[in-house]
């Protein structure tokens, strides 16, 4: 018996070490996700009134799906079971991709609609409410219950988000005076909160790249059916250069990379922790705004940003 126990102990330690390594990879993926997504707020606000949100998102998803499909074909392990390319099994139950695409495209359309009037930092704060909503959805969908420390972190982050959204104005908070743009984007965040658990619930062994490619491809057809008039009405040749720069960024970083990172992390971390990395978004947006010469937020919102950072640190320490 002693011999057996000695043999089992290293295996248990190896399994624990491997589990920690996978978790760290998930955390790294979500850190990259938050950095990539944040740029879309600042750039999106700059072009939101130059192009229809439906037209922008449709072209974005079409190009992203092609980029992702190429990666599936050439990247080792891009497909199922560590192979390259798509398999017949990836096409089973295609309704899954349509359902997730409807949620994902709805989120982005409402995001850019909201950015027509909402400030980037304020919109980023709205995004930080998503983890709390995601945790509420994850319980019935995945059976994942919040540990006290995670619940505490989500609560602290929500308070910080509300502080930023209302710009430190307690009178506006009490009266719940939400800007129109923030209200529109909040509806989109509800869709995103449902989308994250769906990724895990509906996955049937597809790789992160395959899932992201399928969803963005299906998303294009969803938007084509819904907003084909916007696509035809857009004068593509007359669009400002910044729109094309923004579109390129959205395709490569905010769609192809972020969708893959989110799917990768969702298979390695509890979904509440996956979405917890949205708490880093306002901090990244502030850096983006400073880099673009738009200035930083007012001093009144900084306590809220600090609370958001504290929430993220609590979650990181919990691991």
Structural class: mainly alpha
One letter per element, helices H and strands E, the order comes to HHHHHHHHHHHHH
Strand proportion: under 5%
The number of domains is 1
Number of helices: 13
User: How many strands appear in the DSSP assignment?
Assistant: 0
- Radius of gyration, whole Å: 20 Å
Largest sheet: none
Estimate the mean pLDDT confidence. 84
What is the terminal-to-terminal distance?
33 Å
What is the molecular shape? globular
Helical content, roughly?
A: over 70%
Catalogue the unreliable spans: 1-9
Subcellular location: Cell membrane
Protein name: DMT family transporter
InterPro entries: Diverse_Substrate_Transporter (IPR051258), EamA_dom (IPR000620), EmrE-like (IPR037185)
Membrane topology: Multi-pass membrane protein
Fold and architecture overview:
The longest helix is centred in the N-terminal third of the chain and has 46 residues, at 2-47. 76% of the residues lie in helices and 0% in strands. The protein has 319 residues and is an all-alpha fold. It has one domain. Residues 1-9 have low confidence and may be disordered. The protein contains 13 helices and no strands. The radius of gyration is 20 Å and the shape is globular. The two termini are 33 Å apart. The protein has helices at 2-47, 53-74, 95-114, 120-127, 130-142, 148-165, 170-174, 180-202, 208-233, 241-266, 271-276, 281-291, 302-318. Helix 9 runs antiparallel to helix 10 (241-266). It is found in: Cell membrane. The chain crosses the membrane at residues 28-48, 54-76, 97-115, 121-142, 149-166, 178-196, 208-229, 241-262, 274-292, 298-316. It is a multi-pass membrane protein. Residues 26-165, 185-316 form the EamA domain. Pfam families: EamA.
């Amino acid at each position: 018996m002693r011999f057996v126990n000695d043999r089992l102990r290293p295996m248990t330690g190896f399994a624990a070490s491997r589990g920690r390594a996978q978790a760290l990879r998930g955390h790294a993926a979500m850190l990259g996700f938050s950095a990539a997504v944040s740029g879309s707020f600042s750039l999106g606000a700059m072009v939101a009134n130059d192009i229809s949100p439906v037209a922008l998102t449709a072209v974005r998803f079409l190009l992203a799906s092609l980029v992702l499909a190429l990666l599936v074909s050439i990247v080792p392990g891009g497909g199922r079971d560590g192979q390259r390319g798509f398999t017949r099994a990836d096409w089973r139950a295609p309704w899954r991709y349509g359902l997730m695409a409807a949620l994902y495209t709805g989120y982005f359309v409402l995001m850019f609609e909201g950015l027509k009037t909402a400030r980037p930092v304020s919109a980023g704060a709205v995004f930080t409410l998503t983890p709390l909503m995601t945790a509420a959805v994850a319980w019935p969908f995945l059976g994942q219950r919040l540990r006290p420390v995670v619940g505490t972190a989500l609560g602290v982050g929500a308070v910080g988000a509300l502080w930023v959204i209302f710009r430190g104005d307690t009178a506006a908070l009490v009266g719940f005076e939400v800007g129109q743009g923030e209200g529109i984007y909040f509806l989109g965040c509800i869709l995103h909160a449902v989308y994250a658990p769906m990724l895990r619930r509906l996955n049937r062994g597809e790789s992160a790249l395959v899932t992201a490619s399928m969803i963005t491809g299906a998303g294009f057809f969803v938007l084509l059916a819904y907003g084909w008039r916007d696509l035809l009405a857009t004068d593509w040749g007359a669009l400002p250069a910044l729109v094309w720069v923004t579109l390129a960024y959205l395709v490569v970083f905010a769609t192809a990379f972020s969708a893959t990172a989110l799917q990768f992390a969702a298979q390695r971390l509890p979904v509440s922790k996956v979405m917890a990395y949205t708490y880093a978004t306002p901090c990244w947006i502030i850096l983006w705004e400073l880099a673009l010469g738009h200035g930083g937020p007012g001093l009144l919102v900084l306590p809220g940003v600090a609370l958001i950072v504290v929430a993220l640190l609590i979650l990181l320490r919990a691991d």
